[in-house]
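Subject: sequence -> structure tokens, single chain

Hey, anyone have a minute? Need the predicted structure for the following. Not urgent.
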Amino acid sequence: MRRVLSTASVPVGERLAYWHEVIEQTCVPLDIAPCGDAPFRGSLTADRLGCLQISTIEADANRVRRTKGLIAQADRDHFSVGVQGRSPGMVAQDGREALLSPGDLTFYDTSRPYALSFAEPFRMRVFAIPRQALGLREADLRRITAVPLRPDKGPAALVASFLARLAAEATTYPPHIGDLLARNAVDLLGTLVAEQLGREAADTADAATAALRLRIQSFIDRHLGDPDLSPQTIAAAHHLSVRYVHRLFQSEGTTVSRWIQRRRLEASRRELGRHGPAVAAVAHRFGFTSPSHFSRVFRGAYGMSPREWRTMANRLEPGSPPPLTPGR
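Reply:
Had a minute. Here:
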């Protein structure tokens, strides 16, 4: 669901306070200081696509700081990718300060202090990613913040183009497609980070293994409705041994079968949150052998039946499902 918020209809004397509230509710709490004395103007468009929150911010010149005190008030567990639009900006974090030219990408971590500065009216897109989605060590996260990535060649060019298209068309994708595209975006960002970090040979091998695991996970997502989906069919489709497929998932602390079941349950939960689909139809769509088996597995994972979940989800405001997560 798209949200559009603007200071345009707010009395001049209340605009800055309103803008603070908009940024806090949509992104994270920030200390915002306008540059100049003219009435402040700002607008924000927010979209949710799978695990990504996409915010397009247009505002007058200002400086923002994420301080330790603000982090203590609301430490939201995500990592951000900023794509600079019109006019340049500055970003500072982890002892680095960098100039952002239009089109540049940069990473910053909302769980640690940072600052952004814009000397003239600007536009910036911010992609908020759950920290665990990138699968990076804390030391690696600190190495890639406040570094400008030029979108003129290599992975940065591919990522910049993909993110721009994703943001422009976010409202056109059905939920299951949006979820897959968001996962693809995270995979591309992981590739960009791997290149930026300049991993050594052993790390490169690890990155290749991770990329293969992600390809297999994407294959699983595309074939959730196939009741015959199994380690054997996955291995055959990727020209791998069944033993090697099992090893790929062991490093994630799970098994292939558990991963498949988890993804089926997550997809079913999202589908049940929509108005209309019968429980039996959802069970069939996502590869469960029977409605009774589906109900038993769903209750074991979430502590309630599919019908109970659908009733509760439909009472809530769209886009705000209860935080249910099946065990690994």
